[in-house]
What does this fold into?
Amino acid sequence: MIMCAFRKSVIFFCYVFFFHFCILSYGQSSKNDTLTHAVILQSIVPMYSNPDDSNELYDELLFGETCSILEKEANWYYVMSDATGTKGWINIQENNFISSPDYASCLECIQSKDYAMVKPPMAYATNLKTKQRIPLTAGTKLLHYEHGEFEVLGNRFFIDSSMVLPYPLEMNRENLLSVVEPLLNVPYVWGGRNIFGMDCSGLTQIVYSYFGCKLPRNSRSQSKLGEDIPSLEESKAGDLVFFDHYDNRISHVGILLDGYNVVHCGGPTRSEGCVNITKIDSTGIYKGEKCVYHLVAIRRYNFE
It folds into this structure.
């Protein structure tokens, strides 16, 4: 946990720099108030529960993702993420919005699965026209990727091919570890889904995205999908495990590596939490002699 706390402090300062860099590189707001959809051209765009960036982080949009614009208030848009289904507020002064026809082409590319993905934990891409470098976090889709180049809305980018994974990966323990291990010690951040901070369901969603499975944003919604697995003895790598605090209310999720080990983003408290691999038994996850996460369900999902 000391390592998690240290990494969390370091990553927090990196996150501030990372997000500031994104705003400087792509901070152009649209004057078109009739937009109904948008494509994200920043590395990470935070979504908030209310139109105020002092509010709690609710979710995040990643580079190349699309969203529907539902409402406008001052410098804020109320949007629904096509990637997660989450609805929240994003600051339009910090983002570059693209008109509906271009949105449709990006969405079609994603739906047709014409993309590769950033190899965890992150990579840099270079705009071939402007020569600007953009940091891209794990989970970012590289649309129309081919031979070290990808394209978003007519903008072509170069990325080192060694930092790219094909889509989708086959779900097995080896591939699962190749995605998960670079994310170890990423700190717990409520609403996060990037390498500078993520929550438990953000981790499962990002990891599953590499294997061709789109999950809802929160653990309770994730638990309602897939096939029920009766016991850990019948489980296999990639199954999701769901937990409560003995209150019949699912509040945590992790990914099984086998019948004895689970990767999850959590800890005894949020401030101590990070992505880690720990032991699991039929009761749940323990710290010492105390069960801190009570196992209530195991679910298996279909992968491509």
About this structure: The two ends are 36 Å apart (CA to CA). The longest helix spans residues 2-26. The longest strand covers residues 290-300. Confidence is low (pLDDT under 50) at residues 19-32.
